[in-house]
Amino acid sequence: MKVLGIETSCDETAVTILEGEGDFTSARFRILGNALYSQAALHAPYGGVYPTLAKREHQGNLAPLTIQALEEAKMIAKAADTSAAERAADALAKIPDAAFRDAVKDFVSIQAKPDIDLIAVTKGPGLEPALWTGINFAEALGAAWNVPVAGIDHLEGHIVSALLKKESEKTFSLADASFPLLSLLISGGHTEFVLSKAPLSYEPIGGTKDDAVGEAFDKVARLLGLPYPGGPHIAAFAARSRERESGSDIEFPRPLAHDDTCDFSFSGLKTAVLYKLRAMDKISEEDKEQIAQAFEDAARDIIVIKTKRALKATGAKSFAVGGGVSANAEIREGLTKLVKDEFPETTLMFPDASLTGDNAVMIAAAGYLRHAAGRSVMAPLTAHGSQKLA
Ligand code: KG4
Ligand code: ZN
């Protein structure tokens, strides 16, 4: 079965054509076409993602990226049937922006139905104007091509990304995860634990009370004058400090470390960095590197301490980590050591480096797995900016 995946929840526009086979215990995937455009550089001067700008960029990039993915999948074919736009009339009428509506209409009028069986699109959580762009595009394509459209939870996508084991450049198999499966989602918008007692079902175990960990990385980067998204820059600065023998003698708090919940708090840590910077007269590059290290150490420790509690409380047999911050080497190392030393029976899974950030491979794969299990949420879809994984 071939799935066209579409992801537009934040500042990445991504389109993938993924072929899947097998069920949850034996699924295998092949990427037939994959196109992704990151708007990060565009949002960088504002220090965060600007929702209306993100929407406009998604609108401009969705059709070209879909063409790029179709081209790679060798699925470009000129439409002979002139009624595609008519079939999509109702879906097109739901697109408020005239220029985007015309672009989608033109696209479905020139591209014949490709060899796909399902369209999977992110329906939330994320920025609502951005989510709607992907949903409207997916529903217009679905109507024009007579292909069913399923809505996928972005966080389920991140969990699935951790379960995809890379076999070769373009192929993945689904990890043989045993249940209960604990997942930790760490990204720019989320920091939470969810427990799955069975495939594709989720129970919240704990989450952040204020900032997400990625948001804290981004805010601290901004305080240090580093570009958005800040995570990789903080990591690079911290690594330079660790390379020096003297390291960092700065110590930041680890909020909520000693309460007995699986909840997080990162805003106090960010404020501690702010106060530290205010108390310094001149801030050298070396100071910045030390602060980055002290911050990253604290963020890693909080995540490791809370994971220990969550693994104990749930008795999880496997543990998946997903989201943009799962790219962080320090956090990966901390979690790997914890599981190796204290939970050796638990299988730990991280996404392949190509799948840590937002992407459409994870959305297409989640779409495939839900469809195979007969548990898809079908169009008409509604964007839910802050929907909870259930
Ligand atoms: O999952 P993602 O691409 O988008 C959201 O759904 O939020 O995550 C983006 C977040 C940003 O906050 C970014 O700074 C962070 O992931 N990030 C990192 C690293 N790479 C990306 N944080 C720490 N270390 C990294 N290496
Ligand atoms: Zn994400």
Protein described:
The chain is an alpha/beta fold. 43% of the residues lie in helices and 19% in strands. The chain is built from 13 helices and 13 strands. The protein has helices spanning 40-43, 51-72, 84-87, 89-93, 98-110, 128-145, 154-163, 213-223, 231-243, 267-278, 285-314, 329-342, 361-372; strands at 2-7, 12-21, 28-38, 118-124, 149-153, 164-168, 171-174, 181-186, 191-196, 203-207, 318-322, 347-349, 377-378. The strands form 2 sheets. An 8-stranded mixed β-sheet has the order 6-7-3-2-1-4-5-13, with helices on both faces. A 5-stranded mixed β-sheet has the order 10-9-8-11-12, with helices on both faces. The longest helix is centred in the last third of the chain and has 30 residues, at 285-314. The mean pLDDT is 96. The chain binds 5'-O-[(R)-(carboxyoxy)(hydroxy)phosphoryl]adenosine and zinc ion (ZN). Residues 154, 158, 187, 323, 358 line the site of zinc ion.
Described by strand count, sense and barrel closure, the largest sheet is: 8 strands, mixed
Pick out the low-confidence regions: none
Q: Report how far apart the termini are.
A: 25 Å
Strand tally, please? Answer: 13
Mean pLDDT score: 96
Search tags:
390 residues, eight-stranded mixed β-sheet, globular, binds zinc ion, alpha/beta, binds 5'-O-[(R)-(carboxyoxy)(hydroxy)phosphoryl]adenosine, 43% helix
Structure in a nutshell:
The protein is of the alpha/beta class. Helix content is 43%, strand content 19%.
